[in-house]
Amino acid sequence: MRVTVECYGASARWCGSDAITLDLADGATGNDALDALAARYPDFAARRDTVAIAAGDAIASPTAPLADGDVIALIPPVSAG
Amino acid sequence: MRVTVECYGASARWCGSDAITLDLADGATGNDALDALAARYPDFAARRDTVAIAAGDAIASPTAPLADGDVIALIPPVSAG
Amino acid sequence: MSDLKSLPRLRDGALNLADWLVEPQPATAGALNLFAGTVRNIHEGQAVRGMSYHAHRGLAETRLREIEAATEARFGVRAVVAHAVGELAIGEISVVVVIRGGHRAEGFEACRWAIDTIKQAVPIWKEEHYLDGQARFLEGTPIQPVESL
Amino acid sequence: MSDLKSLPRLRDGALNLADWLVEPQPATAGALNLFAGTVRNIHEGQAVRGMSYHAHRGLAETRLREIEAATEARFGVRAVVAHAVGELAIGEISVVVVIRGGHRAEGFEACRWAIDTIKQAVPIWKEEHYLDGQARFLEGTPIQPVESL
After folding, report:
1. CATH at residue D18
2. I want to staple C140 with a disulfide (CB 3.0 to 4.6 A). Which of B32, B77, C46, D143 is the partner?
3. Alpha-carbon torsion (C95, C101, C104, C110), positive or negative
Protein backbone atom coordinates (compact mmCIF):
# COMPACT_ATOMS: atom_id res chain seq x y z
CA MET A 1 0.00 0.00 0.00
CA ARG A 2 1.00 3.60 -0.48
CA VAL A 3 1.17 6.22 2.31
CA THR A 4 2.04 9.92 2.03
CA VAL A 5 4.20 11.43 4.77
CA GLU A 6 4.12 15.23 5.24
CA CYS A 7 7.28 16.55 6.90
CA TYR A 8 6.77 19.50 9.25
CA GLY A 9 9.39 21.82 10.72
CA ALA A 10 12.92 20.50 10.75
CA SER A 11 11.76 17.03 9.69
CA ALA A 12 11.62 18.34 6.11
CA ARG A 13 15.35 19.06 6.38
CA TRP A 14 16.11 15.65 7.89
CA CYS A 15 14.26 13.88 5.07
CA GLY A 16 15.18 16.34 2.32
CA SER A 17 11.56 16.95 1.28
CA ASP A 18 8.24 18.38 2.47
CA ALA A 19 6.38 15.21 1.46
CA ILE A 20 7.44 11.63 0.86
CA THR A 21 5.56 8.67 -0.59
CA LEU A 22 6.22 5.30 1.03
CA ASP A 23 5.31 1.85 -0.25
CA LEU A 24 4.57 -0.27 2.79
CA ALA A 25 3.32 -3.81 3.39
CA ASP A 26 -0.40 -4.23 4.07
CA GLY A 27 -1.10 -3.80 7.79
CA ALA A 28 1.92 -1.55 8.32
CA THR A 29 1.70 0.88 11.26
CA GLY A 30 3.00 4.38 11.90
CA ASN A 31 6.07 2.80 13.49
CA ASP A 32 6.70 0.87 10.27
CA ALA A 33 6.52 4.14 8.33
CA LEU A 34 9.03 5.74 10.71
CA ASP A 35 11.32 2.72 10.33
CA ALA A 36 11.17 3.03 6.55
CA LEU A 37 12.09 6.73 6.77
CA ALA A 38 14.92 6.02 9.23
CA ALA A 39 16.34 3.39 6.88
CA ARG A 40 16.34 5.88 4.03
CA TYR A 41 17.40 9.14 5.79
CA PRO A 42 20.25 9.04 8.35
CA ASP A 43 19.45 12.56 9.64
CA PHE A 44 15.92 11.38 10.38
CA ALA A 45 17.14 8.13 11.96
CA ALA A 46 19.05 10.10 14.59
CA ARG A 47 15.83 11.90 15.65
CA ARG A 48 13.27 9.15 15.08
CA ASP A 49 12.37 8.72 18.76
CA THR A 50 11.57 12.44 19.24
CA VAL A 51 9.03 12.54 16.41
CA ALA A 52 5.25 12.10 16.78
CA ILE A 53 2.77 11.26 14.05
CA ALA A 54 -0.41 13.22 13.28
CA ALA A 55 -3.34 12.05 11.19
CA GLY A 56 -5.85 14.72 10.28
CA ASP A 57 -5.93 17.25 13.15
CA ALA A 58 -4.93 14.84 15.92
CA ILE A 59 -1.89 12.98 17.20
CA ALA A 60 -2.07 9.34 16.08
CA SER A 61 -0.87 6.22 17.86
CA PRO A 62 2.28 4.85 16.16
CA THR A 63 0.96 1.32 16.70
CA ALA A 64 -2.31 1.85 14.80
CA PRO A 65 -2.41 0.23 11.33
CA LEU A 66 -2.35 2.51 8.29
CA ALA A 67 -4.49 2.12 5.17
CA ASP A 68 -3.68 2.57 1.50
CA GLY A 69 -3.89 6.26 0.58
CA ASP A 70 -3.41 7.50 4.15
CA VAL A 71 -1.67 10.81 4.76
CA ILE A 72 0.30 11.16 7.98
CA ALA A 73 2.37 14.08 9.29
CA LEU A 74 5.73 14.05 11.05
CA ILE A 75 5.66 16.25 14.16
CA PRO A 76 9.25 16.87 15.27
CA PRO A 77 9.98 18.47 18.68
CA VAL A 78 7.97 21.70 18.89
CA SER A 79 9.19 25.23 19.66
CA ALA A 80 6.00 27.28 19.86
CA GLY A 81 5.84 30.51 21.80
CA MET B 1 3.87 74.04 70.09
CA ARG B 2 1.18 73.42 67.53
CA VAL B 3 1.14 70.52 65.01
CA THR B 4 -1.38 69.77 62.28
CA VAL B 5 -2.34 66.13 61.70
CA GLU B 6 -3.87 65.18 58.33
CA CYS B 7 -5.98 62.03 58.53
CA TYR B 8 -5.86 59.78 55.46
CA GLY B 9 -8.16 56.90 54.57
CA ALA B 10 -10.08 55.37 57.45
CA SER B 11 -8.10 57.40 60.01
CA ALA B 12 -10.39 60.36 59.22
CA ARG B 13 -13.31 58.20 60.38
CA TRP B 14 -11.49 57.07 63.52
CA CYS B 15 -10.67 60.68 64.47
CA GLY B 16 -13.87 62.22 63.14
CA SER B 17 -12.04 64.75 60.95
CA ASP B 18 -9.73 65.10 57.94
CA ALA B 19 -7.36 67.37 59.88
CA ILE B 20 -6.71 67.93 63.58
CA THR B 21 -4.63 70.55 65.39
CA LEU B 22 -2.70 69.33 68.41
CA ASP B 23 -1.02 71.41 71.12
CA LEU B 24 2.03 69.46 72.24
CA ALA B 25 4.93 70.07 74.60
CA ASP B 26 8.16 71.37 73.05
CA GLY B 27 10.30 68.43 71.90
CA ALA B 28 7.30 66.17 71.39
CA THR B 29 7.72 63.36 68.83
CA GLY B 30 5.42 61.63 66.35
CA ASN B 31 4.72 59.03 69.04
CA ASP B 32 3.59 61.80 71.39
CA ALA B 33 1.21 63.08 68.71
CA LEU B 34 -0.21 59.56 68.27
CA ASP B 35 -0.62 59.26 72.06
CA ALA B 36 -2.51 62.54 72.14
CA LEU B 37 -4.84 61.34 69.39
CA ALA B 38 -5.33 57.98 71.11
CA ALA B 39 -6.27 59.72 74.32
CA ARG B 40 -8.86 61.81 72.52
CA TYR B 41 -10.33 59.27 70.02
CA PRO B 42 -11.11 55.72 71.21
CA ASP B 43 -11.57 54.43 67.63
CA PHE B 44 -8.08 55.67 66.84
CA ALA B 45 -6.63 54.23 70.06
CA ALA B 46 -7.69 50.73 68.99
CA ARG B 47 -5.68 51.09 65.72
CA ARG B 48 -2.80 53.22 66.92
CA ASP B 49 -0.12 50.57 66.40
CA THR B 50 -1.07 49.95 62.77
CA VAL B 51 -0.66 53.59 61.76
CA ALA B 52 2.49 55.15 60.22
CA ILE B 53 3.35 58.85 60.04
CA ALA B 54 4.35 60.72 56.89
CA ALA B 55 6.00 64.12 56.68
CA GLY B 56 6.12 65.67 53.24
CA ASP B 57 6.35 62.85 50.70
CA ALA B 58 8.15 60.36 52.96
CA ILE B 59 7.45 58.09 55.91
CA ALA B 60 8.79 59.71 59.09
CA SER B 61 10.27 58.08 62.17
CA PRO B 62 7.80 58.23 65.09
CA THR B 63 10.71 58.96 67.45
CA ALA B 64 11.91 62.09 65.62
CA PRO B 65 11.04 65.37 67.37
CA LEU B 66 8.43 67.61 65.78
CA ALA B 67 8.65 71.40 65.44
CA ASP B 68 6.03 74.11 65.89
CA GLY B 69 3.97 74.42 62.72
CA ASP B 70 4.79 70.91 61.43
CA VAL B 71 2.22 69.06 59.35
CA ILE B 72 2.19 65.27 59.63
CA ALA B 73 -0.05 62.71 57.98
CA LEU B 74 -1.61 59.57 59.45
CA ILE B 75 -1.08 56.57 57.14
CA PRO B 76 -3.44 53.80 58.27
CA PRO B 77 -3.06 50.25 56.84
CA VAL B 78 -3.06 50.52 53.04
CA SER B 79 -5.27 48.73 50.50
CA ALA B 80 -3.82 49.73 47.13
CA GLY B 81 -4.30 47.62 43.99
CA MET C 1 4.25 58.87 21.56
CA SER C 2 4.87 60.71 24.81
CA ASP C 3 7.66 59.63 27.12
CA LEU C 4 5.80 57.39 29.51
CA LYS C 5 8.53 57.62 32.15
CA SER C 6 7.98 61.36 32.53
CA LEU C 7 4.23 61.15 33.23
CA PRO C 8 2.64 60.84 36.69
CA ARG C 9 2.00 57.28 37.89
CA LEU C 10 -1.07 58.35 39.86
CA ARG C 11 -4.04 59.23 37.66
CA ASP C 12 -7.50 60.64 38.31
CA GLY C 13 -10.14 58.15 37.24
CA ALA C 14 -9.94 54.67 35.73
CA LEU C 15 -6.78 53.66 33.87
CA ASN C 16 -6.81 52.89 30.16
CA LEU C 17 -4.65 49.88 29.23
CA ALA C 18 -3.53 51.29 25.89
CA ASP C 19 -1.97 54.33 27.64
CA TRP C 20 0.44 52.00 29.46
CA LEU C 21 1.33 49.81 26.50
CA VAL C 22 2.59 52.51 24.10
CA GLU C 23 6.29 51.84 24.62
CA PRO C 24 7.98 49.65 22.00
CA GLN C 25 9.24 46.22 23.01
CA PRO C 26 13.05 46.40 23.45
CA ALA C 27 14.87 44.39 20.75
CA THR C 28 16.53 42.27 23.45
CA ALA C 29 13.21 41.41 25.15
CA GLY C 30 11.24 38.25 24.45
CA ALA C 31 8.48 38.63 27.05
CA LEU C 32 5.78 41.18 27.84
CA ASN C 33 3.80 40.71 31.07
CA LEU C 34 0.85 42.86 32.03
CA PHE C 35 -1.22 42.79 35.19
CA ALA C 36 -4.28 44.99 35.66
CA GLY C 37 -6.51 45.10 38.73
CA THR C 38 -10.20 45.80 38.20
CA VAL C 39 -13.18 46.61 40.42
CA ARG C 40 -15.28 43.53 41.25
CA ASN C 41 -19.04 43.55 41.80
CA ILE C 42 -18.89 41.50 44.96
CA HIS C 43 -16.71 41.49 48.08
CA GLU C 44 -17.10 39.09 50.99
CA GLY C 45 -20.65 38.37 49.88
CA GLN C 46 -21.75 42.02 49.62
CA ALA C 47 -22.91 43.48 46.30
CA VAL C 48 -20.60 46.34 45.33
CA ARG C 49 -21.59 49.20 43.04
CA GLY C 50 -18.22 50.94 42.84
CA MET C 51 -14.99 51.87 44.57
CA SER C 52 -13.35 55.14 45.65
CA TYR C 53 -9.54 55.18 45.70
CA HIS C 54 -8.06 57.69 48.16
CA ALA C 55 -4.32 58.44 48.18
CA HIS C 56 -1.61 60.38 49.93
CA ARG C 57 -0.67 61.72 46.52
CA GLY C 58 2.88 62.87 47.19
CA LEU C 59 4.00 59.72 48.96
CA ALA C 60 2.05 57.44 46.62
CA GLU C 61 3.71 58.96 43.54
CA THR C 62 7.13 58.57 45.17
CA ARG C 63 6.45 54.98 46.16
CA LEU C 64 5.15 53.97 42.71
CA ARG C 65 8.35 55.30 41.13
CA GLU C 66 10.45 53.52 43.76
CA ILE C 67 8.67 50.25 42.99
CA GLU C 68 9.28 50.73 39.27
CA ALA C 69 13.00 51.31 39.83
CA ALA C 70 13.29 48.44 42.33
CA THR C 71 11.54 46.04 39.94
CA GLU C 72 13.92 46.99 37.13
CA ALA C 73 16.99 46.58 39.34
CA ARG C 74 15.91 43.28 40.92
CA PHE C 75 14.75 41.47 37.83
CA GLY C 76 16.68 43.10 34.99
CA VAL C 77 13.52 44.16 33.15
CA ARG C 78 11.75 47.36 32.13
CA ALA C 79 8.80 48.21 34.38
CA VAL C 80 5.93 50.69 34.28
CA VAL C 81 3.35 50.90 37.09
CA ALA C 82 0.34 53.16 37.54
CA HIS C 83 -2.58 53.53 39.96
CA ALA C 84 -5.95 55.25 39.73
CA VAL C 85 -7.39 57.71 42.28
CA GLY C 86 -11.07 58.65 42.59
CA GLU C 87 -14.34 56.92 41.74
CA LEU C 88 -14.26 53.74 39.67
CA ALA C 89 -17.13 51.62 38.36
CA ILE C 90 -17.30 47.81 38.23
CA GLY C 91 -14.85 46.41 35.65
CA GLU C 92 -12.74 49.58 35.49
CA ILE C 93 -8.96 49.37 35.94
CA SER C 94 -7.43 50.62 39.20
CA VAL C 95 -3.83 49.47 38.81
CA VAL C 96 -1.50 48.47 35.97
CA VAL C 97 1.92 46.79 35.90
CA VAL C 98 3.77 46.37 32.57
CA ILE C 99 7.02 44.36 32.43
CA ARG C 100 9.22 43.95 29.36
CA GLY C 101 12.04 41.45 29.85
CA GLY C 102 14.32 38.90 28.25
CA HIS C 103 12.41 35.74 29.13
CA ARG C 104 9.10 34.78 30.66
CA ALA C 105 10.51 33.49 33.96
CA GLU C 106 11.73 36.90 35.11
CA GLY C 107 8.75 38.60 33.45
CA PHE C 108 6.25 36.69 35.58
CA GLU C 109 8.33 37.10 38.75
CA ALA C 110 8.83 40.83 38.24
CA CYS C 111 5.14 41.40 37.49
CA ARG C 112 4.05 39.49 40.56
CA TRP C 113 6.57 41.21 42.83
CA ALA C 114 5.56 44.66 41.58
CA ILE C 115 1.83 44.18 42.18
CA ASP C 116 2.39 42.49 45.57
CA THR C 117 4.64 45.39 46.60
CA ILE C 118 2.18 48.03 45.38
CA LYS C 119 -0.47 46.49 47.61
CA GLN C 120 1.72 46.76 50.72
CA ALA C 121 3.87 49.84 50.15
CA VAL C 122 1.71 52.48 48.47
CA PRO C 123 -0.51 54.79 50.58
CA ILE C 124 -3.79 54.26 48.77
CA TRP C 125 -7.06 53.25 50.41
CA LYS C 126 -10.09 51.54 48.89
CA GLU C 127 -13.51 52.68 49.98
CA GLU C 128 -16.16 50.26 48.81
CA HIS C 129 -19.65 51.48 47.93
CA TYR C 130 -22.40 48.90 48.34
CA LEU C 131 -25.69 48.56 46.51
CA ASP C 132 -27.54 49.32 49.77
CA GLY C 133 -25.95 52.80 49.89
CA GLN C 134 -23.41 52.03 52.62
CA ALA C 135 -19.67 52.64 52.16
CA ARG C 136 -16.68 51.21 53.99
CA PHE C 137 -12.88 51.50 53.91
CA LEU C 138 -11.35 48.07 53.34
CA GLU C 139 -9.10 46.61 56.00
CA GLY C 140 -5.51 47.00 54.84
CA THR C 141 -1.98 46.12 55.79
CA PRO C 142 0.39 48.42 57.75
CA ILE C 143 2.48 50.22 55.14
CA GLN C 144 5.82 48.53 54.36
CA PRO C 145 9.04 49.97 52.92
CA VAL C 146 9.49 49.01 49.25
CA GLU C 147 12.84 47.33 49.78
CA SER C 148 11.63 45.13 52.64
CA LEU C 149 9.41 43.11 50.34
CA MET D 1 -16.69 44.06 18.75
CA SER D 2 -16.55 40.63 17.13
CA ASP D 3 -16.94 37.49 19.21
CA LEU D 4 -13.33 36.66 19.98
CA LYS D 5 -14.15 33.04 20.83
CA SER D 6 -15.35 32.38 17.27
CA LEU D 7 -12.16 33.60 15.54
CA PRO D 8 -9.13 31.44 14.65
CA ARG D 9 -6.37 31.28 17.27
CA LEU D 10 -3.70 30.88 14.61
CA ARG D 11 -3.05 34.07 12.62
CA ASP D 12 -0.90 34.95 9.63
CA GLY D 13 1.69 37.52 10.61
CA ALA D 14 2.47 39.29 13.88
CA LEU D 15 -0.25 39.53 16.52
CA ASN D 16 -1.70 42.89 17.59
CA LEU D 17 -2.28 43.12 21.36
CA ALA D 18 -5.41 45.23 21.06
CA ASP D 19 -7.15 42.50 19.01
CA TRP D 20 -6.88 40.14 21.99
CA LEU D 21 -7.94 42.61 24.67
CA VAL D 22 -11.32 43.64 23.23
CA GLU D 23 -13.45 41.53 25.56
CA PRO D 24 -14.91 43.33 28.57
CA GLN D 25 -13.67 42.43 32.05
CA PRO D 26 -16.32 40.20 33.72
CA ALA D 27 -18.00 41.97 36.65
CA THR D 28 -16.87 39.19 38.99
CA ALA D 29 -13.22 39.46 37.90
CA GLY D 30 -10.60 41.52 39.73
CA ALA D 31 -7.51 40.53 37.77
CA LEU D 32 -6.38 40.72 34.15
CA ASN D 33 -3.13 38.96 33.22
CA LEU D 34 -1.54 39.19 29.80
CA PHE D 35 1.55 37.48 28.47
CA ALA D 36 2.97 38.18 25.02
CA GLY D 37 6.05 36.57 23.49
CA THR D 38 8.12 38.70 21.11
CA VAL D 39 10.99 38.08 18.70
CA ARG D 40 14.41 38.86 20.23
CA ASN D 41 17.40 40.17 18.29
CA ILE D 42 19.83 37.70 19.80
CA HIS D 43 19.76 33.96 20.53
CA GLU D 44 22.63 32.01 22.09
CA GLY D 45 24.99 34.78 21.10
CA GLN D 46 23.94 34.95 17.44
CA ALA D 47 22.47 38.15 15.97
CA VAL D 48 18.93 37.42 14.76
CA ARG D 49 17.15 39.43 12.06
CA GLY D 50 13.77 37.71 12.20
CA MET D 51 11.83 34.53 12.81
CA SER D 52 9.60 32.29 10.68
CA TYR D 53 6.85 30.40 12.50
CA HIS D 54 5.76 27.19 10.78
CA ALA D 55 2.72 25.25 11.99
CA HIS D 56 0.67 22.13 11.45
CA ARG D 57 -2.33 24.40 11.14
CA GLY D 58 -5.14 21.95 11.82
CA LEU D 59 -3.58 20.39 14.89
CA ALA D 60 -2.20 23.71 16.18
CA GLU D 61 -5.65 25.33 16.02
CA THR D 62 -7.16 22.33 17.83
CA ARG D 63 -4.46 22.38 20.49
CA LEU D 64 -4.72 26.14 21.12
CA ARG D 65 -8.46 25.75 21.73
CA GLU D 66 -7.85 22.76 24.00
CA ILE D 67 -5.36 24.79 26.02
CA GLU D 68 -7.86 27.65 26.34
CA ALA D 69 -10.57 25.29 27.59
CA ALA D 70 -8.17 23.44 29.95
CA THR D 71 -6.93 26.74 31.42
CA GLU D 72 -10.50 27.87 32.08
CA ALA D 73 -11.45 24.56 33.71
CA ARG D 74 -8.31 24.23 35.85
CA PHE D 75 -8.12 27.75 37.18
CA GLY D 76 -11.71 29.02 37.05
CA VAL D 77 -10.82 31.95 34.78
CA ARG D 78 -11.56 33.17 31.26
CA ALA D 79 -8.73 32.50 28.82
CA VAL D 80 -7.87 33.56 25.28
CA VAL D 81 -4.72 32.35 23.52
CA ALA D 82 -3.38 33.04 20.02
CA HIS D 83 -0.26 32.29 18.00
CA ALA D 84 1.27 33.83 14.89
CA VAL D 85 2.38 31.92 11.76
CA GLY D 86 4.75 33.27 9.10
CA GLU D 87 7.53 35.84 9.07
CA LEU D 88 8.00 38.10 12.11
CA ALA D 89 10.45 40.95 12.67
CA ILE D 90 12.34 41.75 15.89
CA GLY D 91 9.96 43.02 18.60
CA GLU D 92 6.82 41.65 16.93
CA ILE D 93 4.40 39.47 18.90
CA SER D 94 4.30 35.73 18.21
CA VAL D 95 2.04 34.52 21.03
CA VAL D 96 -0.57 36.03 23.35
CA VAL D 97 -2.30 34.72 26.49
CA VAL D 98 -5.07 36.77 28.15
CA ILE D 99 -6.53 35.66 31.50
CA ARG D 100 -9.46 37.31 33.28
CA GLY D 101 -10.07 35.96 36.78
CA GLY D 102 -11.29 36.64 40.26
CA HIS D 103 -7.95 37.31 41.96
CA ARG D 104 -4.33 37.72 40.97
CA ALA D 105 -3.11 34.41 42.42
CA GLU D 106 -5.07 32.28 39.96
CA GLY D 107 -4.54 34.86 37.21
CA PHE D 108 -0.76 34.54 37.37
CA GLU D 109 -0.90 30.74 37.69
CA ALA D 110 -3.31 30.34 34.78
CA CYS D 111 -1.28 32.66 32.55
CA ARG D 112 1.96 30.83 33.32
CA TRP D 113 0.41 27.40 32.81
CA ALA D 114 -1.12 28.40 29.47
CA ILE D 115 2.12 29.74 27.97
CA ASP D 116 4.18 26.82 29.34
CA THR D 117 1.67 24.40 27.82
CA ILE D 118 1.58 26.19 24.48
CA LYS D 119 5.35 25.79 24.24
CA GLN D 120 5.16 22.01 24.73
CA ALA D 121 1.85 20.97 23.22
CA VAL D 122 1.32 23.04 20.06
CA PRO D 123 2.87 21.91 16.73
CA ILE D 124 4.62 25.14 15.80
CA TRP D 125 8.29 25.46 14.85
CA LYS D 126 10.55 28.50 15.02
CA GLU D 127 13.02 29.02 12.21
CA GLU D 128 15.54 31.69 13.15
CA HIS D 129 17.05 33.92 10.47
CA TYR D 130 20.49 35.30 11.32
CA LEU D 131 22.16 38.50 10.18
CA ASP D 132 24.72 36.44 8.27
CA GLY D 133 21.97 35.03 6.02
CA GLN D 134 21.84 31.57 7.63
CA ALA D 135 18.60 30.09 9.00
CA ARG D 136 18.01 27.30 11.48
CA PHE D 137 15.07 25.50 13.09
CA LEU D 138 15.33 25.80 16.88
CA GLU D 139 15.69 22.65 18.94
CA GLY D 140 12.33 21.87 20.51
CA THR D 141 10.66 19.51 22.91
CA PRO D 142 8.80 16.32 21.85
CA ILE D 143 5.12 17.28 21.61
CA GLN D 144 3.13 16.62 24.81
CA PRO D 145 -0.62 16.08 25.30
CA VAL D 146 -2.30 19.20 26.79
CA GLU D 147 -3.67 17.39 29.81
CA SER D 148 -0.35 15.85 30.82
CA LEU D 149 1.12 19.23 31.73
Report:
1. 3.90.1170.40
2. B77
3. negative
